[in-house]
Amino acid sequence: xxxxxxxxxxxxxxxxxxxxxxxxxxxxxxxxxxxxxxxxxxxxxxxxxxxxxxxxxxxxxxxxxxxxxxxxxxxxxxxxxxxxxxxxxxxxxxxxxxxxxxxxxxxxxxxxxxxxxxxxxxxxxxxxxxxxxxxxxxxxxxxxxxxxxxxxxxxxxxxxxxxxxxxxxxxxxxxxxxxxxxxxxxxxxxxxxxxxxxxxxxxxxxxxxxxxxxxxxxxxxxxxxxxxxxxxxxxxxxxxxxx
Length: 243
What we know:
The chain is of the alpha+beta class.
């Protein structure tokens, strides 16, 4: 008899404790669901302060030494020209000479493929990185002056960069965080609740495009280098507890 009473008592206590734990779990679950997730945006427009430009020049000849001597002379002419335009010699970087054999391809009287040696092509690249953006930008647009010196020269479009991008990112993160918090506060206010503690913060990738462009954002971030003027943006997602 006593054993039965003890067993019933233990079972009853277990049932009561179980109900208490279940109630606590439900309460905590409902509390966890009372959250607000918002996304804030930070943007910044800026102008590049560093330009990178390059050009390629070449010579063709059946004699390797002749082609090399002509290319070496072209290098001196280009170097002097750039110096005359105010480009310091220390900002010029000339690549190693690239040598390619040239062939003409055709068929013989029997229809078999043949190739005929057509000389050597030697080429070299000159690159300039400068903070004098306007000067190098103007230089890249007037390569006909180099061509008029008798040099076969091809100019590449310049690339633009910003050396203080880290500072821009820090400010955008601050702005995006502030924007997200203001959105969360407004949502909570309209719902008649109060914003609680921050539970989670997630930062998106930096997107840098030309202003008013149709460039698409990418998952890993976009970094435009073709435009001197740029617009950067970043998102911050915040999750708050709501009381």
